[in-house]
Amino acid sequence: MAQHQVNYASSAGLPIALTSVDKLVNWGRSNSLWPLTYGLACCAIEMMASGASRYDFDRMGTIFRASPRQADVMILAGTLSKKHSEFARRLYDQMTEPKWVISMGSCANTGGMFNTYATVQGVDRIIPVDIYLPGCAPRPETLQYAMMMLQKKIRRESADMKKNTKQDLTNQTGKRARLI
Amino acid sequence: MRKYVPKDNVQGKSYYTDRFWVAPRVPREEVTDAHFTGVVATLGVLAKEAHVELGQLIVHIDARDNVAVIKALKEACGYTQCSEQSAVDYLAKDGEFELFYQLLNVNEAKRARVVCRIKKGEAIESIVPLFNSANFAEREMFDMFGIKVNNHPFLKRILMPDDWEGHPLLKTYPLHGDEFASWYEVDKIFGKEYRDIIGPENRDPAKVDRHDTKRFARIGYEVPFGTDISEGETQKEIEYSEALLVNYNKKESKTLDKRR
Which domains does chain B have, with CATH numbers? Predict the structure, then answer.
């Protein structure tokens, strides 16, 4: 019978881990990124595949939520038409801080091949974007990599909301939301 | 053996295009089919001109007779489906729109197209009482060309937003949109005063601006969102895979005792 000796009292043996509040908060935030269930075009098919069992977003703590109030990440998956831009911005505004945006695919990044009057030429014209994801459409692995890059980005951020908020929270009286 | 063609700068040169190439017309044939002859006879004087293209009957009519003609085709000739209705912009060439109604006779497996022309600013009578499928088609025609349809039950834009200006399928409408179109989402969401902040649309998908810290990330040399780096960014590489928990234990906390 094996006999173990755990030196709890010795300087090296205490089961204590030291960290900072920033790291702890960001550890929680980055490992429970809940994106909004929001697809615009064919990229959303890849986004659905990423969430389904083969690529399995759940193992990263990424669970799609059906309400912008419960979501942290907005994945703009597909072509954003000008008619729809107002509603995309409204969904973004309804998300609670802290919130991040992934622009998925060429159409969302720059308008892509839809170089026309009816397509928003890059969603960053209306929503501040954290991760730009190239591809047409990006494979699920690419979206997973983008999610991991976003996690790394979050881990570097300050946990202080005032430091990384994207919207000017002080401007409560203004009718329109501030972009930055 | 194939003739040698020098391949210098082949990709840089534009493809050879014949400046005098004219798109071939679909050949027009006489109406000889028994069914189509009966259709033309039924329409009588309403059909100004009739011919057959690719096995389909084309009937040119006066725009004021469109409901009467289509009613006759539906009730007397068995054309029970209206599969498409729209217009073609010939304003530059003739100063007119060409409207067409594509009809289908399921029993005879025949298609007929009713074609009429209206001038700019003229309206057309709705055929929604005859074909419900024309409801959306006429709305789309109104949306894309600005052609008004009289007695339509709900004539409003169907594809473009309700507050859109301009009719995109007109030949005079630019593909990249006019000024209203290019600023539509900015004006609607933020207001016109934000045009200066957001800037004009970037139609070059390969454009990279290294000083733009809102749209472009510098992996490994990151700066906070929106920082001004025109003076030069700090060349400080960032370690991404930093440990979350720092292990202060220098030696193993659990040791297996020596038995002997």
Answer: 34-160 (3.30.460.80)
Determine contact: B205 vs chain A, CB below 8 A.
yes
pLDDT digits (tens, 9 = 90+) for A68-120: 999 999 999 999 999 999 999 999 999 988 899 999 999 999 988 898 999 99
Q: How far apart are CA A165 and CA A128, in angstroms?
A: 11
Whole-prediction pTM:
0.75
B248 at the A interface (CB within 8 A)?
yes
Q: Is the pLDDT of residue B241 over 70?
A: no
B156 touches chain A (CB under 8 A): no
Instruction: Give the integer Cα–Cα distance in Å for A106 and B206.
Output: 11
Helix (H) or strand (E) run with residue A146 in it: helix A140-156
Nearest Cβ partner for A179 among B173, B197, B240: B197
Work out the pLDDT band at A169, boundaries 50, 70, 90. Answer: very low
Q: Give the mean pLDDT of chain A.
A: 84
- Interface subset of A 134-163, CB within 8 angstroms of B: 149, 152-153, 155-156
Chain B residue at shortest CA distance from A23: B244
Residue A175 identity: K
pLDDT category of residue B19 using cuts at 50, 70 and 90: confident
On whether the CB atoms of residues B118 and B99 are closer than 8 A, the answer is yes
